[in-house]
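A reminder from the course coordinator: this example appears on the midterm review sheet, so study it carefully.

Given structure:
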């Protein structure tokens, strides 16, 4: 993506970023440094969205289509908490990798502990991923979009932080043996980022355990800003920085709602047959279609291909035209359904 498009993206997604304040607070200063990091920030955000789609592939809600859609997420539900966390984590992860790979001129591996004793039988050595760098830049870029003083902004910032904590929590120690014929008389170790997939799994669990923040309604209603902030601070007191939090209950993800940017599950594919399906995948048709008052429709598409090719000496290949049928299962409206039948059955959004 070129710089122009990115800037456009940045200005729409982060709507109101105090550009100069961000740029000036970086290690390198000026527009050039800003753009160097900005490209990685954009890549990292996109990685976050991709991983969100992977983690939620067979759920009713399956993430914003792109980073641009993040802008439309005006609420603070369990799901938006995940998006904030995974985006912030994606940015930190990408920038940390960039740093270790030497992509960024002014930053490299964290070697500050090298040579020191790390634990019983090992020394720090090698290239430890510089997460502090990634964390700092992620904070500066991602958190900059939360300019409000309200509870929603405070929740978003908290979840951004939880995402960054997840990157740290999933780091691994890698060791190498030295000495005569691998005797391991000397061992050096360094810390390394996990695959981003692992960060995704970790945050998916946090999503399931996310806590609803109960704000003191009376204090929140008071038009006094200071009182407002006090109520927010009180509510946060008992919540660990690693946990995801939300303010509003999730809407019904079965239903399409353009105002909320929700597609509903009509038209979604689900998995019905297959030997290597997980339990979770196997139930996808029930979760996405049946429990949402939809039926499962089999869609067959024919794909033409060559087959039974024979080689004739010499040198000709004759093939037959074959058509292969691909079967997919998709949620579709029931005939004559008016949406009454399932409303009682369907309660908790999943
Ligand atoms: C950082 O890494 C991402 C993904 O690995 C890559 O696309 C991007 O170009 C890198 N940034 C820089 C400045 O090289
Ligand atoms: C969409 O959601 C909004 C906010 O929850 C609600 O007021 C509205 O009625 C919904 N629209 C539809 C078509 O369900």
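Designed residues:
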């Amino acid at each position: 993506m070129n710089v122009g498009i990115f800037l456009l993206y940045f200005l729409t997604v982060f709507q109101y970023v105090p550009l100069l304040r961000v740029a000036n607070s970086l290690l390198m200063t000026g527009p050039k440094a800003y753009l160097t990091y900005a490209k990685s920030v954009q890549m990292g955000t996109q990685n976050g969205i991709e991983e969100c789609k992977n983690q939620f592939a067979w759920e009713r809600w399956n993430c914003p289509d792109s980073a641009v859609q993040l802008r439309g997420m005006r609420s603070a539900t369990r799901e938006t908490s995940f998006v904030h966390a995974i985006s912030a984590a994606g940015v930190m992860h990408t920038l940390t990798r960039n740093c270790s790979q030497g992509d960024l001129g002014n930053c490299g591996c964290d070697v500050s502990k090298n040579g020191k004793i790390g634990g019983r039988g090992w020394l720090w050595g090698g290239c430890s991923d510089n997460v502090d760098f990634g964390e700092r830049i992620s904070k500066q870029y991602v958190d900059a979009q939360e300019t409000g003083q309200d509870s929603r902004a405070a929740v978003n910032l908290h979840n951004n932080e939880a995402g960054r904590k997840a990157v740290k929590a999933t780091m691994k120690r890698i060791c190498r043996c030295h000495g005569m014929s691998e005797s391991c008389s000397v061992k050096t170790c360094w810390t390394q980022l996990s695959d981003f997939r692992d960060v995704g799994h970790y945050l998916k669990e946090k999503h399931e355990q996310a806590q609803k923040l109960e704000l003191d309604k009376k204090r929140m209603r008071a038009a006094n800003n200071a009182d407002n902030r006090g109520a927010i601070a009180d509510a946060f007191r008992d919540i660990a920085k690693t946990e995801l939090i939300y303010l509003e209950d999730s809407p019904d993800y079965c239903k399409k709602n353009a105002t909320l940017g929700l597609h509903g599950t009509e038209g979604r594919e689900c998995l019905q047959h297959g030997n290597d399906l997980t339990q979770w995948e196997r139930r996808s048709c029930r979760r996405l279609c049946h429990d949402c008052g939809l039926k499962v429709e089999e869609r067959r598409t024919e794909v033409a291909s060559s087959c039974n090719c024979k080689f004739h000496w010499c040198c000709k290949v004759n093939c037959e035209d074959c058509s292969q049928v691909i079967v997919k299962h998709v949620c579709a409206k029931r005939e004559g359904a008016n949406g009454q039948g399932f409303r009682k059955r369907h309660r908790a959004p999943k």
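Residues 1-27, 339-348 have pLDDT under 50 and may be disordered. Residues 254-350 form a domain with the Endo-n-acetylneuraminidase fold fold (CATH 3.30.2460.20).
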